[in-house]
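Quick look at the format.
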Amino acid sequence: MILRNKHAAGKKGLVKQMAVKVGMVSLGCPKNQMDAELMLAKLKAAGFQITAESGLADVVIVNTCGFIEDAKKESIDNILEFAQLKKEGQIKKIIVTGCLAQRYQDELVQELPECDGVLGLGANGDIAEAVRQVTGGQKVVSFPDRSCWKLDGDRLLTTPDFFAYLRIGDGCNNCCTYCAIPLIRGGMRSRTMDSVVAEAEDLAARGVKELILVAQDTTLYGTDFQGKSLLPQLLDRLCEIEGLHWIRLLYCYPEHITEELLDVIARQDKVVNYLDIPIQHASGKVLAAMNRPGDRESLTRLFRHIREKVPGIVLRTTVMTGFPGEDEEDFAALCEFIKEIRFERLGCFAFSPEEGTVASTLPDQVPEKVKNRRRDIVMEAQAHISDSYNQSRVGQTVEVLVESFDRYAEYWFGRSAADAPDIDCKVFFTTKTRVQPGDLIKVKITDVMDWDLIGERA
């Protein structure tokens, strides 16, 4: 590998040297994964060798998550694991990026001296220079303004070739009292529509068949520069792109679901009948304490209207148990609401008091055991709802995006339009004809296995 020697400015020629191997571990949500892919592309363009075997790399970048306590612990555990490998001489340098680095700047620098670099979000664009500096023996600590980090550019995809996430904005203006995202990533920044469409066209040309739109709140797209949501218009433009088959929406907040958006979902075949709408709770009292609008009655009206407007739509939501002040009556209201609406997909997590948020200082904090018990009750109820929904699909023929072959089970598997990657179920199937990852095929559902479906190619 040939790299330009940055210390030989003005000198002619190139200096030959061994390629520096760089590995990256990216944790947390798809938005963080977008940052990782942009950084990996910059590293590759700078001449570094990207390796999937992080434990064998010269430089390891840990792109951290800092959203809730479990995510922070996972990030720290990964840093410490690589610190041990560094001590044993298996790797040479560690750079920490991502939300945890942005949020706990001084703490990481002071308490984890094993880290050779700590970069805030605004320094992501300087990742190649940071690697050069740490391999040269320097310690790099950089926290420029978050707006320095551009949301578009070349990406080195870490997803399979046939699907990709597409970030349409970053940051959030909702200011929920439990959430640290505005503290970490700032207010909502939408990408220009031309930029988003151009990237989608490039991804489609590279063989991507499913685009998954993400932001902290996708329904706020465009409100920062147009004063209204431009998501419906964006979807119409994306549907014109040849080669795209599915377009999926994640992180749509209930208060920002509009008639225009529902019209597009109902009208455009490429926009799958699937909406991820995190509600967090159904008790009006708890929602008010979260600084979120609505109550059980308004949410019930919304979801009934969505189902009427888009027949057959699959609804995913996320709820939280144990928010400060949540009593048994509030929790019962949440459980009753879940059983009434019967979300096809639902995730639940226990409240985590995050430093710097209003909710961490509220009175009437709920004990950990109670929070966790309530979470388990919600997930047990949802298991019955999901099983009932899956059973109703037996006998149906569905379109499946083929992902891979499970050599242990001896089944191929993939996802239907009802399933987002990583968070929803799989469709396992047999076939007598050749298939390969990325194919779109028809599968007749014959059985249910836990959360997943079993079928045979139709």
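Next, a different chain entirely:
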Amino acid sequence: MTLLRTLVWFVLVAVAMTIAVWLAQRPGLVTIQWQGWRLDTSVGVLLVAVALLCVIAAALYVLWRWVAGAPSHVFDIWGEARRRKGYRALTQGMVAVAAGDAVEAQRHARLAEKLLEEPPLTRLLSAQAAQLAGDREAAQRYFAAMLDDPQMAFLGLRGLLMQSLKAGDSSKALTYAEQAFRRRPDTPWVVRSLFDMQAHAGKWREAQETLQVGLKRKIVDPERGRTLNALLLVERSRAAERGGADQDAMDHARAAIALAPEREPVAYRHAELLIKRGEGRKAMKTIERAWPASPHPDLAQLYLAAEGEKDPLKRVQALSRLTAGNPDDLDSRIALARECLEARLWGEARRHLIAAGAEKPDAPTRLCRLMADVEEQEYGDGEKVRHWLARAADSPGDRQWRCRHCQTVHDRWLAVCPSCGAFGTSEWRMPPPSPLAVAADAATSRLQVSAPQEVLPPEPKADEKPPPAAI
């Protein structure tokens, strides 16, 4: 590129020199007469004079423009310095918000408002500073003012939504979430927040519509969406039954079982309605299909209710058919052990309880109590009964319905956790291990993986031969 410029420069110089030589060889004569004045000169001199006049005119024009624009230029420089100070205050205010310094954040917010003529940016900083300082009314006022600006309205809605949630006003929060969803349905946090709020408010149909949008825009995982859709249909079925629409209740239950037949709440709801209709065999088939993936005591009792059998031995046989799909699961063993106790089959009950892990140190509470019942009913051994009851008291716990998010325990399956408001997070599982148990397991693992020390065999005595080497 530098070489090309050099060549162009040389070409221009050569052209200029050629023109100058050509004019020198052909000077010509130019005569100018004006107001009694006469000027005789050559063509070359006249061209040079014209060029100088053009340069002087251009210089005078530039000077005039600078003098005329000097005041506005000074004001522009002053305004630019003011904007730089304003943006510096805005940046420092954001840093103070991130650091949690409410006093500094408010000070920089006031300075930015004074220096900048851009209300959207300064309102956002002022709102965040007010939130940090605990001034909810001021934060509400700033976020509401942001709704007037189309570019900042979404941020204003988010701020108002968070303010409403902190204040415990779920109705207003839902309204703001719906407005945010209408503006930006592709935003993941908007879809998830609106879904949770609609489910918490019992708006099952609206929550389904929001879920469908999330699935369509690939915000929600398809497998998770299938399960959530089925659980929403379960709640719609219950709501329809409470409203007296029994057919709608069954239709929703059928749609739910078609989506997630392996989920315990879905299977229980469908089987429950089938039993009310007198279709016990279909209810049993529904539970049998769900049991391998979701064994649960409530499903076992519902299965026996669908069977309608009162004879203890036949009830044991019925449960044996049910648990055959997952015979080694804890709940399968416990369900059979309970019915064996009712049928006075103590040996079978003991076998199932031991197979379930009753003799292990971390045996669940239900196993220990059932072992106490076996000892009392079969032998009447008070000492062993007390032993098992003591173990039950020291047991780490049992499978229970627990919220996956906040670990809150529920007596039954709930679609919405009353503690954290999450939908579809209730799971049938054991409690998480205590910190002491985790530490003990870690210590045991370290002991197990440590290399064993080598032990040298004793040296043979003088009159003994060494043992033969292994082949």
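DSSP finds 20 helices and five strands in the chain.

See the schema section for token definitions.
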